[in-house]
Amino acid sequence: MPFDPLLLAHARHVVVFTGAGVSAESGIATFRDKLTGLWERFDPAQLASAEGFAADQALVWGWYEMRRAGIAQANPNPAHHAIASLAARVPKLTLVTQNVDDLHERAGSQDVLHLHGRLDAFRCYRCARPVEALPPLADGALEGRRIEPPRCAHCAGPLRPGVVWFGEQLPEPVLSQACEAAEHCDLLLSVGTSGLVQPAASIPRLALAAGATVLHINPQPQVSGHRREFAIAGKAGEVLPGLMTRGFE
Ligand code: BV8
Ligand code: ZN
To answer: Which residue in 124, 218, 229, 235 could disulfide with 152, CB within 3.0 to 4.6 Å?
Structure first.
């Protein structure tokens, strides 16, 4: 039985849970896409870790600066805009993202719960002091090269991106707020995620177990066969605008 878009109009509380796929049509590579250039021989999980950073700070900092430069050049796509407009159409919407870009915010979404932190925040790797002013992007960052991380003004330790690396705990109260929303919503839209990274990937299952309807939007959706779990195979930037139209006819 297909998903009934009118569930959107009748929803009391919608959770939108996004992954890298929601930014794919903005030109941001997903984690499923093979790494290129200097990083070709690495798995993202190796680079996105404290061990990876400690092993080669310039390689990892250069990778994040290339991504930061790419995000700065990217624009929100119709999926980000559809999600931002949905917030005005339902009584309550909680947006939970695994993404470290600011494209949801640039599309107008507010109070975005970033489970894995944000790439536009930096702190000292050694003393953890947050850095207020973002360091300017180094020349050649977009092309991708090794870049020595700037130093902390307080302890001269290297700066690190404000993202959650593999092996690091997810931020609180963000994670608890996301779980709370999943357990109290009546509809969860899971958009552009492979569902491989824990504990974030458990959010849709929490909603399903608590009685919500879950809809996956993904070119290659995976569903468990649960009677309240649905999928629409397609690109988020194409499916979401249509869903918004049909959902509020
Ligand atoms: C923790 C920030 C413990 C950094 C990220 C074995 C089993 C289970 C778990 C583990 C395990 N071994 C280790 C773990 C734990 C580990 C983990 O889950 N590993 C995985 C790889 C097995 N998790 C952790 O380490 C977490 N921390 O567990 O801490 C702990 C506990 C107590 C005390 C101390 C420690 C931390 C995980 C966070 C890692 N950081 N990001 C950075 O960005 O550099 S994760 C990063 O990868 C992203 O944030 C995202 O979450 C994930 C990628 O997932 P997706 O977003 O889904 O993207 P992906 O590319 O995978 O998929 C894209 C999807 O989009 C695809 O399905 C595609 O079909 C679809 N798509 C493509 N185009 C479109 C589209 N969809 C729609 N429209 C399109 N146009
Ligand atoms: Zn410091």
So the answer is: 124
Q: Is the CB of 196 under 6 A from ligand 1?
A: yes
Tally of residues, the chain:
249
Nearest to 195 by CA among 16, 14, 19, 15: 19
Q: What is the pLDDT of residues 42-72, one digit of tens each?
A: 889 999 999 999 999 999 999 999 999 999 9
111 and 38 co-located in one domain: no
Two tokens, residue 100 = 């470290």
Per-residue buried b or exposed e for 36-67, using 16+ beta carbons within 10 Å of the residue's own CB: eebbeebebeebbbeebbeeebebbbbbbbbb
Q: Is the CB of 25 inside a 6 Å radius of any atom of ligand 1? A: yes
**Are 193 and 244 in the same domain?**
yes
- Total-model pTM: 0.97
Ligand 1 center from residue 245 Cα (angstroms): 31
> What total number of domains does the chain contain?
2
**CATH number where 54 lies:** 3.30.1600.10
* Nearest ligand to the C-alpha atom of residue 158: 2
User: How far, in Å, from the CA of 162 to the mean position of ligand 2?
Assistant: 14
